[in-house]
Write a structure and sequence with these properties.
Layout (H helix, E strand, L loop, with lengths): L1 H23 L8 H22 L2 H18 L1 H6 L1 H28 L4 H4 L1 H28 L24 H8 L4 H6 L3 H17 L2 H26 L2 H16 L2 H31 L4 H18 L2 H15 L3 H14 L2 H18 L5 H14 L9 H12 L5 H7 L2 H26 L12 H16 L1
């Protein structure tokens, strides 16, 4: 009951603060601006109390965004000094990327020793994953270049800052050479994410080729490293509210509220792009593979709802696997394609990353050629493999990649303010894409059961009860 009352109080204070702020903005002002200022801070105090009850990192990030924006608006000089909080958070995030990407890629490739046994099915699944994620990548690129959500941000306040950088002009040969590492320690130290990815892939292939007695200890070590880095990410994300609050206070103090309008445009762009991906890519694939759409939608409704509500693909995995079996996909195909897809078939995440990366460049005023955009999103597509279950993994990947392309980091913190809303949609699309992938691979293998009727436990129980009654008589 206390929670509901507090929620109502928050909504009421929000309405009052909004009305007073609008009225004081009139010329001449209807009320003293101090009245609106007090109303806004009372609203923030109520939101903080609500956040204390919720104890959710996502909710705390939203609250810190509101507080940071208010501090940036009311105390711009002091707000600029809070940039140190975002810098600390950024440094911590950058320490995650190399070991996390290396460990997850090695486990994802070398850990699937069954790929040789699975044979053609594994190859078909991987080809399907890469083709579909490439479509997602191009739809994301087209959407952000069409809406130009990042353009129009007033950067006059940060023009003299050292973080305002420009992309380095490179020839085709330079770009190709830049992909391959000459010293892995140097690549990690310089934050060259793509070079770490290439090293991890080749390392994983070599690991998969050695004898079991040599492969197993190294695989166990990389699995342990992967688990430790997941926990490391969780610990760092506890600092996310402070980092986001400091970054937004700095941004609003320097440039006002204009960047938040750009973030809202990005949110609309993402939802529109994801809808286009579903209608233009996934629906035609389902029709070509002769997947019964009505039954498919009914089967995935529950796992997709779980993914949307929890923003966790992992939370929806057990129910999604069960739903695909109920649709008529054999268990052995579900057991291979679904978990592998969680590493290699992140349609929603790939689309989101392509949008967000170009948004950063647009907000920073850096003009990227189509070739440079392709290289950047290709890098993001590779580095995103295997980290679907990590909270805020997209932030980690995005920050590291834009830094390696010599772009500033401040636009990423604008994105983080609405990341929870974007995370729900992209996670739901990830689950839809993986569910469809299992059905398509089953059809491709000729093993999809069109008229499959799942056994109903209730009926089985009724039959067992009647048999028991007859035996008793």
């Amino acid at each position: 009951m206390k929670f509901s009352r507090l929620s109502l109080l928050v909504i009421l204070l929000l309405l009052v603060a909004a009305i007073l702020t609008v009225l004081t903005a009139q010329t001449p002002p209807v009320f003293d601006p101090t009245v609106a200022l007090v109303a806004r801070w009372l609203f923030l105090a109520a939101v903080l109390a609500l956040a204390w009850q919720r104890r959710s990192i996502t909710f705390w990030i939203v609250v810190s965004m509101l507080v940071g924006a208010e501090i940036g608006h009311d105390f711009p000089r002091q707000a600029v000094e809070l940039k140190v909080l975002s810098d600390v958070f950024l440094r911590l995030v950058k320490t995650i990327i190399a070991p996390l990407v290396f460990a997850t890629l090695v486990v994802g490739i070398a850990g699937h020793a069954d790929l040789k046994q699975v044979g053609k099915m594994g190859l078909k699944a991987l080809v399907y994953f890469e083709v579909v994620t490439t479509f997602a990548l191009f739809i994301g690129l087209a959407a952000i270049n069409l809406t130009k959500a990042g353009e129009g941000v007033d950067r006059s306040g940060i023009a003299a800052d050292t973080e305002q950088l420009a992309t380095v002009k490179q020839s085709t040969a330079d770009i190709i050479l830049h992909i391959f590492p000459e010293n892995i320690a140097k690549s990690i130290a310089e934050g060259q994410v793509l070079q770490v990815v290439v090293f991890a892939i080749i390392f994983a292939i070599g690991l998969a080729m050695v004898h079991q007695k040599h492969r197993q200890p190294m695989l166990q070590w990389t699995e342990s490293l992967s688990e430790v880095m997941f926990k490391f990410t969780n610990v760092v994300m506890f600092f996310a509210p402070l980092g986001v609050g400091g970054a937004l206070a700095y941004t609003v103090g320097k440039m006002g509220f204009a960047p938040l309008l750009n973030a809202f445009k990005l949110l609309l762009t993402l939802y529109g792009a994801l809808a286009a991906f579903l209608l233009l890519v996934l629906v035609p694939i389902a029709l070509l593979a002769r997947i019964p759409l009505k039954r498919f939608v009914q089967a995935i409704a529950e796992p997709v709802s779980i993914a949307f509500a929890t923003t966790s693909s992992e939370a929806a995995l057990p129910r999604a696997m069960e739903a695909m079996e109920g649709l008529g996909v054999p268990r052995r195909i579900v057991a291979f394609v679904m978990p592998t897809g969680y590493s290699f078939n992140l349609d929603g995440t790939t689309l989101y990353l392509s949008l967000a990366a170009i948004f950063v460049a647009q907000a920073a005023g850096v003009d990227l050629s189509f070739g440079q955009q392709l290289v950047m999103v290709f890098t993001l597509m590779l580095t995103s493999k295997g980290v679907a279950g990590v909270p805020r993994a997209s932030l980690v990947i995005l920050l590291a990649t834009v830094a390696s392309f010599n772009l500033p980091s401040w636009p990423v913190f604008i994105i983080l303010g609405i990341d929870a809303l974007m995370d729900m949609a992209r996670t739901a699309v990830n689950v839809i894409g993986n569910c469809l992938a299992t059905a398509v691979v089953a059809r491709w293998e000729g093993e999809f059961i069109d008229n499959y009727v799942a056994p109903e436990p209730v009926q089985e129980l009724a039959v067992a009860d009647s048999a028991l009654a007859e035996h008793a008589h």
